[in-house]
């Protein structure tokens, strides 16, 4: 199964008088790694969730390849989409292996190769029999990624999935995610607050502000000064931090 493209076609989501997402039209090419960045409340998570229908747009359509996600049951759609969020919510009464296999089990599909999935996320195979409570936060997020990939999903949505991790673990897991993206030939969409993470991992960085897309650039173009004022304000943060550290 090849990685799919994702198209937002005039997508808006209103909550009362708030436009969480405001007329977004954007195509994410098959096989790309896109970071969605922007201030808190800019609409990143809401836009991401229109893909797997955790949020239904007020207007507009979302297409995976050429198919409208609104067609057919949401459960069938979600089985084809890996989704990892900050507090991943592993089932506490199930072992790591059972957690990883839950998607295919519910769907009545063949059991996934748990050992291979643990290898992919660089967890020792012996954690398969453990309870989630006996794992660190970083290990739990790795299990979350393994669970998201278990049904063979080629589209991976990551919503601040590394938000609660220490910087070293976050960096290691980010690199592993990028390698997995390349090895498995995925389309990956990563919501992050961290512009440095976006620049280092993504092939394309989409900047949101007040529900709108205000920049859509490659990391190189952003670093060369493209993307406008809001994008450059975000790029300035890690750049100035690096300069201040170098000057210590
Ligand atoms: N279920 C909801 N009901 C009402 N308002 C909502 C709901 N979900 C989101 N919003 C509002 O929509 C706007 C966008 O929220 P969203 O969570 O998409 O932003 P975000 O960029 O992902 O923020 P953060 O980085 O803090 O997670 C915010 O003003 C938020 O308060």
Topology:
Blueprint (H helix, E strand, L loop, with lengths): L5 E10 L2 E11 L4 E6 L5 H6 L9 E6 L2 E2 L5 H6 L1 E5 L10 H12 L6 H7 L16 H13 L5 E5 L7 H18 L2 E5 L3 H7 L2 E6 L2 E6 L1 H5 L4 H19 L2
Parallel strand pairs: 3-8, 3-9, 6-7, 7-8
Antiparallel strand pairs: 1-2, 1-4, 4-5, 9-10
Task: Provide a quick synopsis of the model.
The protein is α/β, with parallel strands linked by helices.
Keywords:
ABC_transporter-like_ATP-bd; ATP binding; 4-stranded antiparallel beta sheet; ABC_transporter-like_CS; binds adenosine-5'-triphosphate; nucleotide-binding; 248 residues; Rossmann fold; alpha/beta; 10 strands; 6-stranded mixed beta sheet
Describe this structure in words.
The protein has 248 residues and is of the alpha/beta class. The protein has a domain at 6-80 and 154-246: P-loop containing nucleotide triphosphate hydrolases (Rossmann fold, 3-Layer(aba) Sandwich). Helix content is 38%, strand content 25%. It is built from nine helices and ten strands. It has helices at 44-49, 74-79, 96-107, 114-120, 137-149, 167-184, 195-201, 219-223, 228-246; strands at residues 6-15, 18-28, 33-38, 59-64, 67-68, 81-85, 155-159, 187-191, 204-209, 212-217. The protein has a six-stranded mixed β-sheet. Strands 2-1-4-5 form a four-stranded antiparallel β-sheet. α3 (96-107) runs parallel beside α5 (137-149) and α4 crosses α5 (137-149). The N and C termini lie far apart (51 Å). The mean pLDDT is 93. The chain binds adenosine-5'-triphosphate. Adenosine-5'-triphosphate (ATP) binds next to β2 and α1.
